[in-house]
Amino acid sequence: MRVLRAADHKRMEWKNGGGETVEIAISPPGARLADFDWRVSMATVATNGPFSVFPGIDRTLSILEGNGMRLFIEGRSPVLLTQESDPLIFPADVPITAELTDGGITDLNVMTRRDKLRHTVLRLVVDGRQGLSLTGGESLLLCHRGQMDIDLANDKIALAAGDALLLEEAGGESLQLRGDGLLYAITIAAI
Questions:
Q1: Residue 22: which of 46, 38, 34, 40 has the closest Cα?
Q2: Which of 9, 65, 102, 176 has CB 3.0 to 4.6 Å from 151, enough for a Cys bridge?
């Protein structure tokens, strides 16, 4: 179990100047964009344009801040994503173009190598106390808004906005969430 504080996340400007990426976690540690098994990051998108292509990768996108973005994914009808939308999974190795609906956005990206792993992303609004069961593999809990206290067995972890909790062997774990905020629960499992 590792707590990943917002102040420690790795920040990277895009080469084309169209935004910034904040890397929350990557596996294996120290991997690069060409050789990661999984990666969780946030991106600030300031302009319309194509997405980077990641061969062999599945990707889930959620809108964290801003008025939304329309995605044009090859082979699909256009999709409008807003802060209220469910996380959207799609292959990251097909042509994709993004069109901002009204100004810049910040999104949450979860990417896994298709031949090794699968992932799920759950958006949870927590108001008070709520239970959460983790299904297996690795789990990352990202507190996006508010504050969250997580009770796991004998451990109590406090997360502020932007902080994350990485559970490396989370199969069958049950935890209690307490607080007022928005949490993203990401599960990554071997296929």
A1: 40
A2: 176
pTM of the model: 0.94
Question: Given this model, what pLDDT does residue 134 score?
Answer: 85
Q: What is the pLDDT of residues 24-72, one digit of tens each?
A: 999 999 999 889 999 999 999 988 999 889 999 999 999 999 999 999 9
**What is the Cα–Cα distance from 88 to 188, expressed in whole angstroms?**
16
Residue range 98-113, pLDDT digits in tens: 999 999 999 999 999 9
Q: Quick one: 9-113 is in which CATH superfamily? A: Jelly Rolls (2.60.120.10)
Q: Specify the fold of 117-190.
A: Jelly Rolls (2.60.120)
The secondary structure of the chain in percent helix, strand, coil, rounded to multiples of 5, reads 0, 65, 35
Specify whether the CB–CB gap between 148 and 178 falls below 8 A.
yes
Predicted local distance difference test score (pLDDT) of residue 171: 65
What's the chain's Rg over C-alpha atoms? 16
Q: Rounded to whole angstroms, how far apart are CA atoms 186 and 191?
A: 16
The residues near 17 (Cβ < 8 Å, ≥ 6 apart) are none
Return d(Cα 53, Cα 17) in angstroms, integer: 17
DSSP, collapsed to helix, strand or coil, labels residue 40 as strand
Residues contacting 135, CB < 8 A, separation 6+: 120, 170, 171, 172, 187, 189
Among candidate residues 62, 22, 25, 12, the one with its CA nearest the CA of residue 164: 25
